[in-house]
Write a structure and sequence with these properties.
heterodimer, A: about 325 residues, mainly alpha, MetI-like fold, about 75% helix, flat, B: about 325 residues, alpha/beta, Rossmann fold, 2 domains, 8-stranded mixed β-sheet, two-stranded antiparallel sheet, binds iron/sulfur cluster
């Protein structure tokens, strides 16, 4: 950690804040253009009652004024109140849901990185054997399936399939709360990025093991294990790490679909519901959360990068 | 590669010369069994050690060859820019070479890194050991490679075009360093190069290769004074010499190096040879002794050829 690093991190934080501001204002404008509002589905809703509610939430004020009020709240760490569930403060709600989503996301990333790199390395060291072909085939399948298809197939397999095969002894209970319930959605979420990582790792490994410095390592008489791990793997991982930023982004956006399908009470599900409910404050809040998360994930990756490659300095 | 046979004595410096594609690098790589796929050693022996208790590299198990590499025979490569791992510190990479073998304890290995760097004349070796390769210049990297190669005190150092990628002034320094190390440590050196000037300044014996064959070999002085194979002769004519008549044109070797997958019949050099006779097209000449200690693979020896065609040979 040098001074340069601190300055760099500082700059990046400013950028993330700016991005969050831009994203939130775009979403703010966009969400108010959606037809209808949060109170249309109210029972016994009368025009008068609706006007009262709109006034209560300040929704009858001009948009710029509303936005400024919202930004003011955000600066105090307050994202406002839910329009549908009255009295529910959004900040603690989203933080709670973030924990759920982060758990799912981390498991998905773990699956992605461990299995993706593992398969990539295996395929590269066993190049042009059936192992390589099988891994490449699996990769192509994973790569070409959208996550909602993967999710539906996995549910079919684990819920209906396992139940039928085990004669009812095994019952996969989708939902959230039990530790084992994270596995299937994490796989559904991680399969696509896993395929990308395994392909990239394979290509990168194959390139590195032809490098002159790997030949030097052999010529020194190093043990094969050291040649592979110390002289090939670490170098091969550098390009893989660069795409971990975009991969994390894809896991975050993918979680919107996966949480909805698996009924997981995380940010993603909240996001979808809040749009349907026209719960403006939550929509904007979730969007802003996502913008910040993507920014932080990419920053984290960029900070790992120089640890792997000493030629990079900030 | 066919029928290549040569020996290197303890502490000797031998140059292997030839154009790219002549098989000189493959020869060097086979000594350490580093020939890349799909190349392989189909037959032959590579013997190492004292008379009577020699080991055959070709017959070694994987463990034996691993112990052999870097320990008995070390190798340095053409491009020092890419030959060191960019993400590991230079000192670490040198220490690692020693840690791979049992000659030194881990502590000795650690303590030897800085003296080794000093030995190859790298300034401020304590600081430099902690640098990464990209912080070194090309010449310094090649020095560090030499330090790495010599760290295990091998009997033989194979240097594959060690100066080709470097500036001329740096080239001279590296050659001088190799010469001094050979003298001080007694490490035998095989120098592989296309550059005869480099051979002249370092090696006592020279092997000339063409199309995967040895075409001439002998003491450097003798070969430079009276080359007997037309290929060696034209190689020597193609280097500029300050002491010769300035207006004499440099002779370049016309034609392309042979296609190794589809070599010509008879003498492999005949398509480019200006002295060829009918026999050259049909029968490949053997490597025969032409002078004490000097062998050449040619039907027409240069001293006869030059005597027969003085006008062509003298002023091309
Ligand atoms: S054998 Fe004939 S073709 Fe070959 S180098 Fe000698 S003279 Fe030339």
């Amino acid at each position: 950690m040098t001074r340069g690093t601190f300055a760099y991190v500082g700059q990046r934080f400013v950028l993330i804040a700016l991005t969050a501001l831009v994203v939130s204002s775009i979403v703010f404008i966009g969400v108010h253009q959606l037809p209808g509002n949060a109170f249309l589905s109210e029972r016994q809703s009368s025009p008068q009652r609706e006007a009262e509610l709109l006034h209560h939430y300040g929704l009858d004020k001009p948009l710029p004024q509303q936005y400024l009020a919202w930004v003011g709240g955000v600066l105090h760490g307050d994202l406002g109140e839910s329009l549908v569930n009255r009295g529910v403060r959004i900040t603690p709600l989203l933080l709670r849901e973030l924990r759920v989503s982060a758990t799912l996301g981390l498991f998905a990333l773990l699956f992605t990185v461990v299995l993706g790199m593992g398969l990539g390395i295996l395929a590269a060291t066993k190049q042009n054997t059936w192992i390589d072909y099988a891994a490449s085939f699996g990769g192509t399948v994973g790569y070409s399936m959208p996550n909602f298809v993967t999710a539906t197939l996995l549910i079919l397999l684990t819920v209906t399939g396992f139940y039928a095969w085990s004669g009812g002894a095994f019952y996969e209970d989708i939902g959230w709360g039990k530790p084992e319930q994270v596995i299937v959605p994490a796989i559904a979420l991680g399969l696509y990025p896993m395929a990308i990582i395994s392909r990239l790792t394979r290509a990168s490994m194959l390139e590195v093991i032809r490098q002159d410095y790997v030949r030097t390592a052999w010529a020194k008489g190093l043990r094969p294990r050291l040649v592979v791990i110390r002289h090939s793997l670490r170098n091969a991982l550098i390009p893989v790490v660069t795409i971990l930023g975009p991969i994390t982004t894809s896991v975050i956006t993918g979680s919107v679909v996966i949480e909805y399908i698996f009924g997981i009470p995380g940010l993603g599900k909240e996001f979808v519901n809040s749009i349907f409910n026209r719960d403006y404050n939550i929509v904007i809040g979730v969007f802003t959360f996502y913008a910040i998360l993507v920014g932080l994930a990419n920053l984290a990756v960029d900070l790992v990068y120089p640890l792997l490659d000493p030629r990079i300095r900030y | 590669m066919d029928g290549v046979s040569f020996h290197v004595d303890r502490g000797e410096t031998v140059g292997i010369v030839g154009e790219s594609g002549s098989g000189k690098s493959v020869t060097a790589m086979s000594i350490l069994r580093l020939v890349a796929e799909p190349g392989r050693i189909a037959s032959g022996r590579i013997l190492f050690g004292d008379e009577g208790k020699q080991k055959d590299v070709v017959q070694m198990t994987d463990d034996e060859i691993r112990e052999f590499r870097g320990n008995d025979v070390a190798m340095i490569f053409q491009d020092p820019m890419t030959s060191m791992n960019p993400v590991l510190k230079v000192g670490f990479q040198i220490k690692e070479a020693m840690a791979a073998h049992e000659r030194f304890t881990p502590k000795q290995a650690r303590d030897r890194v800085v003296p080794m760097l000093k030995r190859v004349r790298i300034p401020a070796p304590e600081d430099r050991a902690k640098n990464y390769p990209h912080q070194f210049s090309g010449g310094m990297r090649q020095r560090a490679m030499i330090a790495m190669g010599l760290s295990n005190e091998p009997h033989l150092l194979i240097a594959d075009e060690p100066t080709t990628a470097l500036d001329v002034t740096v080239q001279a320094q590296i050659i001088e360093l190799l010469r001094d190390l050979n003298r001080d440590l007694g490490t035998a050196v095989i120098l592989i190069t296309h550059n005869l000037a480099v051979v002249a300044s370092l090696c006592t014996r020279v092997i000339v290769m063409y199309a995967g064959r040895i075409v001439e070999e002998g003491p450097t002085r003798q070969i430079f004074k009276s080359p007997q194979h037309p290929y060696t002769w034209s190689l020597l004519r193609s280097i500029p010499r300050l002491d010769e008549y300035q207006h004499e044109k440099l002779l370049t070797i016309s034609g392309l190096p042979p296609d190794l997958t589809n070599p010509p019949p008879g003498c492999k050099f005949h398509p480019r040879c200006r002295f060829r006779v009918d026999r050259c097209l049909e029968e490949e000449p053997p490597l025969g002794e032409v002078d004490p200690g000097q062998k050449a693979r040619c039907w027409v020896l240069m001293r006869n050829a030059l005597a027969a065609q003085p006008q062509q040979a003298g002023q091309p």
